[in-house]
Amino acid sequence: xxxxxxxxxxxxxxxxxxxxxxxxxxxxxxxxxxxxxxxxxxxxxxxxxxxxxxxxxxxxxxxxxxxxxxxxxxxxxxxxxxxxxxxxxxxxxxxxxxxxxxxxxxxxxxxxxxxxxxxxxxxxxxxxxxxxxxxxxxxxxxxxxxxxxxxxxxxxxxxxxxxxxxxxxxxxxxxxxxxxxxxxxxxxxxxxxxxxxxxxxxxxxxxxxxxxxxxxxxxxxxxxxxxxxxxxxxxxxxxxxxxxxxxxxxxxxxxxxxxxxxxxxxxxxxxxxxxxxxxxxxxxxxxxxxxxxxxxxxxxxxxxxxxxxxxxxxxxxxxxxxxxxxxxxxxxxxxxxxxxxxxxxxxxxxxxxxxxxxxxxxxxxxxxxxxxxxxxxxxxxxxxxxxxxxxxxxxxxxxxxxxxxxxxxxxxxxxxxxxxxxxxxxxxxxxxxxxxxxxxxxxxxxxxxxxxxxxxxxxxxxxxxxxxxxxxxxxxxxxxxxxxxxxxxxxxxxxxxxxxxxxxxxxxxxxxxxxxxxxxxxxxxxxxxxxxxxxxxxxxxxxxxxxxxxxxxxxxxxxxxxxxxxxxxxxxxxxxxxxxxxxxxxxxxxxxxxxxxxxxxxxxxxxxxxxxxxxxxxxxxxxxxxxxxxxxxxxxxxxxxxxxxxxxxxxxxxxxxxxxxxxxxxxxxxxxxxxxxxxxxxxxxxxxxxxxxxxxxxxxxxxxxxxxxxxxxxxxxxxxxxxxxxxxxxxxxxxxxxxxxxxxxxxxxxxxxxxxxxxxxxxxxxxxxxxxxxxxxxxxxxxxxxxxxxxxxxxxxxxxxxxxxxxxxxxxxxxxxxxxxxxxxxxxxxxxxxxxxxxxxxxxxxxxxxxxxxxxxxxxxxxxxxxxxxxxxxxxxxxxxxxxxxxxxxxxxxxxxxxxxxxxxxxxxxxxxxxxxxxxxxxxxxxxxxxxxxxxxxxxxxxxxxxxxxxxx
Length: 953
Hints:
This protein is mostly helical.
C-alpha cells in the first residue's frame, strides 16, 4: 500500500533495483504461497522475458536473501519445490491488515455503531501510504493484482464515506470526495456519495451541479446515463425533500441499576408519571443534599421508564458539585457524538451545536439523564425542542423551571432495610438496637448507610455493636464512613467547596452551634453582618442543601437546621480553619444575640410575683422582635435551652446564667417545669463554681418559685433562704425583698400567718424603699390573704384596693388579674355572690389577655365552685369544661390537673359518674407525672371515697 518497504525492529531493507522489487512484490502478494519460476518470470518481465530470465531470478533471490539476513530475517525466504515462498504472517503485511480492518469497520457500521465504524476506518487508512505497489514495475499477473488492490481501495473509499455520512461528517467529507471523483471519474458510487453529502449539508445547488458533471462524464466517455440510484437521488434533490440520515445509532448510556436500592416508592412513582407524559417534552428534577441518593433514584427511575424511549438513553454527569462543572458546549458535543455525529462534524458554533442536538432529538424519543447539575443555565441548552423526549435532572441546588421531587433522608425502617440488604439481614436482626444506632449515627443518609453496611460486609468478624461504638464519637465519625471509592466526607466537601468564602465561613460557624434549629439572624450575629446579608447567605446554603429550611415558626421566622453528618462536617471544617479564639468569639456573639432578644421578649411578658428581674449589664441590640414576645419565646425555646447547655459547657457561665434566668417567665407561663429545673440547676452549679453570687441568688430564687408552684414548700423555703442570704451579702434590696415575698408565700400556704405577715411586711417595706411598685403591690395582695385568713376582712379589703390601684396604674394586666382573683375570694368569704362572680370573671379575662392559661383555669374553676355552691350546677359544669379548653391536649401542667380534679367533683354532683371517674383518674395520672404526691393522693381518695372505679385501677 504505497512504496515497497520492509522493516524489522526498525531496520529497513536496503534499496534494490526494479527487478528485485518486482520479485519481492510478487512473493508478498502471494505471501506464504509457493511461486514458481515461471510465475516469477511473468511478474518481472511479462510476455517478453530475456533468455537469462531464470538465471536472473536465481540471482535476485540470492541477493534478496542476503539483504533480508542483514536485517535479521535470514529464514524468511525459502525454496519450495520448483519455486520460492516468503514466510510472512498476515498481520505483518499492510494489505492484509487493511483488509481485516475494513471488514471490521463494515461489520461495525452494519451493527449501528457509526462512531466506532468511522474510528476503525480511520485506523485502517493509516496503513495506506499511497497507490498500491507504487514504485514497483508490474507485469503479467502482478499487474492484475495491482488493479485489484486499486479497486479494493476505491470500494473502501465508498464504504468509509458511508460511515462518515452516517455520523454527519459532511463538511470534511465533501472536499475529499470531490478530489476522488476527479481521480476516478467513472466511479459512480463516489459521485453519488458526494451528491448526498452536499445535499445533507444544505448545499443543494452544488449537489445538482455534481450530478450534471457526472452525467457529462458518462455520456462523453461511455454514452450512458447515470445509474438508477444516482438518478433517484437527483430527483430527491430537485424536489427539495430533506435527505434522511441514518438514525440507527441508539445510545444506551445508563449506568447499571442498583440491586440493593431501598425505599423511595412514592418518589419513583411520581417521577415515572412525570417522564412518560406523551403530550409534551417532560423535565423532572430530583434535588437534595449530598449523599441522599439522588443519582441512585434517577438511575432506578430511568431504567423503569426506559422502554418508553425507543431512541435510547443518554447519561451525562455534569459535575455540579465539583470545582469545574462541565460547560454546556462540551456536553452538547459529547451528546452529538453519542448520536453518531462524527467529532469532526460537530459544529464549532454553540448555537449551531444546540440546533443540531435538537434536530437529533426531534427524530427520536430519547431519555436524557443529567446528573449533578449546578444550575438551570447548565440545563437549558440540553433540553429538547419538541415533544417525545424527556429530561431527568439531579442537583444539590433548587432548580426553577422543572417539576421537582425533593429527596430527604430515609426513614428509620428503610435505613435498617438498606443496612440489611448489604451487610446481611441475619446480622442486623441479631442486634436490632445496635443496627438502629448505626442508622442514627449515619443520619439515615443513604451514602453513609451504604458505607457503614459495606464495612460490616467486609469485616465479618465485627459485630454491629462494634461499628456503632466506632460511629458514636462525632470527632471521628466521618473517618469511619469511608470504604474504597466511597467517602461521606468527600461527598459533603464537593458542595462545601462550591461555596464562596463568606458562605463557607457561615457554614463552618453554624456547625459550631448545638441548637436543633436557628433563624437567619443568628448568621448575622456569627458573621457580624446585617440581617439582609445574613438572609442571603443562609438562603444560599439552603439552595445547595447544606442546611435545610425546617419551616416557618409561629413567630414568622424561617428556621433552618443541619443534617447530623453535615453538622459534623461543618464543625470539622471550623476546627480546622477557625482559630479557637475566633470560634469562641463567634459563639459568644450568637449566644449574646439570643440572650438580648430573650431579655427583650421577657420584658414584654407578665411580671410574675416571685421573679427577680435581670439586669444583664448590656443594652439589648436585637432588632425586629415580633409583636407577641411569648410567641417568639415559644418558637426559640428549644434553641435557648440548648444555648444554655452549650454556654455552660464552654464556661460562658455569666451568659448562661442570665439566659436561664430570662427563661423563667416562659417556663412558668407554659408549665415547662422540667426545662426550668434543668437549666437552673446546671447554671446554679456553674455559678457556685465560679463565685457568681448574684447569679446564684437569682437562680436560687427561680428554683424556689419552681418548688413553690409544684407544692414542694420545704424545698422552696430552702432556695428562698439561700437567695435571701446572698442578696443580703451583696446588698441588693430588691432581690432581698423578692426572697421575703417567696418565704412569706410559703408560710401563708403552711397556715403560719404570723411568720407570713412578718416576711410580707418586710418585703413591702423593702419594695417601697427601692421604688418597686409592682413588687409592693404583690406583697399587699399576699398580705390581704393573711388578713382574710385571720378574719380581718377590712384590712384585707384595704390591701387589695391599694394593690389593684397600683397594678392599674402600672398597666399590668397580670397584676390586676391576681388582685381581682384575690378580691373574688375576699367577696366569697363575705358571702357576696355577685361581687365574687364579677371580680372572678374580670380576672379570667385579664389572665387570658396576659397569656396566663394556668391562672385563667384556676380562676375559672373557683368561679365554677362558686356557682356549684349556689346550686347552679349547669353553669358550674360549663365553666369547668371551659377551664380545660385553656390547655392543649398535650399539656401536662399543674393547672390542667387541678381543673380536671375540680371538674370531677362537678360531674359527680351532676350524677355523671363515668365522667367524674375519668376526670379524677386523668388528674391523678398528671399529678403523679408532675411529682405532686399530696394532690395525687387527693384524686385517688376521691375515686375511692365516691366508690368510683376504672379498669386497671
